[in-house]
Amino acid sequence: MTTKDFDNRIIKTIEQLSNPDSYKLVCHEHMKGEPLPSNKNISRIIELVREILFPGYFASTTLREGTTIHYMGVYVDELCTLLSGEILAGMCFECEDDTANKVLKHTERAEANTIELIEFLPELRRLLVKDVEATFLNDPAAKNFGEVIFSYPGIRAITNYRLAHKLLQLQVPLIPRIISEMAHSETGIDIHPRAQIGESFTIDHGTGVVIGSTCILGNNVKIYQGVTLGAKSFPIDEKGNPIKGIPRHPIVEDNVVIYAGATILGRVTIGKDSVIGGNVWVTNDLPANSRVIQKRAKDIPFTDGAGI
Q: Could you tell me if 171 and 90 are in contact, meaning their C-beta atoms sit under 8 angstroms apart?
């Protein structure tokens, strides 16, 4: 291949990539000066939240009596700066008012959301302490709280979820979903930030867990790896488009245990104190104190495969 042929092929490819018809569905146009969400900054926000909520675990600082308030001040100050910037970026990104100065339009609200999230951190710590305690008590292999905080993917995913859920309650766009998907990438646990999850939540092992956006979980719920709390179908409107926002995921009441590989689909209710065995499908309501398990092998009729 000659240099001229090589250059011509490169130029042709550049022209194809620059054709608006090829990228109109995947291109975001923004005005100069408008911030864009930053995965790097959002990752740092998550790190800071972990450092603040679990002192002495995720930072290199040496904590001792009299210095904690100093380091908390440093962390919270950095968190405020990054958080307000990312909230503003999310608002500008999703704002459809092209006639306005989006930065000026959304700065005040972004700052208000930031301080509300900062003020929520003590409550967030209280919730996560209960999640850590429940995880420790529900796992005989856990040696201490520190092991749970440091190494359990369930706690990492739940931390991201509870942070993202609060931001969603504050009507912050885009950023909550990025935070939850970062946990998904890190742990294999997919919790939609719109789900409602009560206190003392335990995810044991965790890989492959899916919790849909309209799920409601009560207190002291425990689920194992591979559990799906999903939708059975997607209703379609008169134009053939999926109807979004309607309740389509399970309600799981207090003190329910769901074992590995179980799948619960649709807007069904699993009554309190129930146990769902591994690798079962549930698509109907279950009353309180239910027990659902697979049939034992000896209960399944034998077939030699004739007619299959």
A: no
Single-letter residue type at 145: F
Q: And the tokens for 37?
A: 């969400």
Residue 28, pLDDT score: 77
- pLDDT digits over 49-103, tens only? 999 999 888 877 667 777 788 888 999 999 999 999 999 999 999 998 888 888 9
In the block, tokens 């699993």 appear at 270
| Stretch (H or E) spanning 128 | helix 102-138
Give yes or no for residue 305 having a pLDDT over 60: no
Q: Are 264 and 250 in contact (CB under 8 A)?
A: yes
Nearest to 293 by CA among 251, 262, 249: 262
| Three-class DSSP category at 43 | helix
Is-contact 275 257, C-beta < 8 A?
Answer: yes
Which whole-number Å values give the CA distances from 198 to 15, 74, 158, 254, in the listed order?
53, 31, 11, 8
**Is residue 56 classed exposed, middle or buried when 0-12, 13-18 and 19+ CB atoms within 10 A define those classes?**
middle
- Residue in 295, 290, 294 with CA at minimum distance from that of residue 280: 294
* Identity at 221, one-letter amino acid code: V
Contact between 224 and 205 (Cβ < 8 Å): yes
User: Between 303 and 108, whose confidence is greater?
Assistant: 108
Both tokens of residue 182? 């970062």
Contact status, residue 35 vs residue 43, Cβ threshold 8 Å: no
Q: What is the mean pLDDT of the chain?
A: 91
Residue/partner pairs of 228-235 with CB below 8 Å, 24 or more apart = 228/262, 228/263, 228/264, 228/265, 229/264, 230/263, 230/264, 230/265, 231/265, 231/266, 232/265, 232/266, 232/283, 233/266
Domains and CATH numbers, the chain: 30-189 (1.10.3130.10), 195-302 (2.160.10.10)
Evaluate whether 102 touches 79 at the Cβ level (below 8 Å): no
